[in-house]
Amino acid sequence: xxxxxxxxxxxxxxxxxxxxxxxxxxxxxxxxxxxxxxxxxxxxxxxxxxxxxxxxxxxxxxxxxxxxxxxxxxxxxxxxxxxxxxxxxxxxxxxxxxxxxxxxxxxxxxxxxxxxxxxxxxxxxxxxxxxxxxxxxxxx
Length: 140
What we know:
The chain is built from five helices and no strands. By secondary structure, the protein is mainly alpha-helical. It folds into two domains: about 15-65, no CATH class; about 65-140. α1 (about 20-30) packs antiparallel against α2 (about 35-55) and α3 packs antiparallel against α4. The chain is globular. The model is unreliable at about 135-140 (pLDDT under 50).
């Protein structure tokens, strides 16, 4: 039986946690050995997103911030799948090919994340998280 993850219940605001995440991601990107121009762009993009997150939440993304990280990541993947599908519908030519490739890659990630969630998360854990987030678990 799969765990009932209620993705419609918002997570609580983040609390001061532990390690800053963006610097870890930037370090990982720098160590990939990718083209320098793309690496610079990625680092700037992550820094900009980090600044936006700080403006919204008054802190950067950190470990141990009181949120259900696996749920947050899964929800972001759901959004990415929808945006790439939208891009398929709105694009022409090579952009359609790119969007289809990315869409199917994201769908694979979504599927894998949900399989992992179902295998490793207990019903009781999800119930507690959904309750703490201000909602309730609903049977389907």
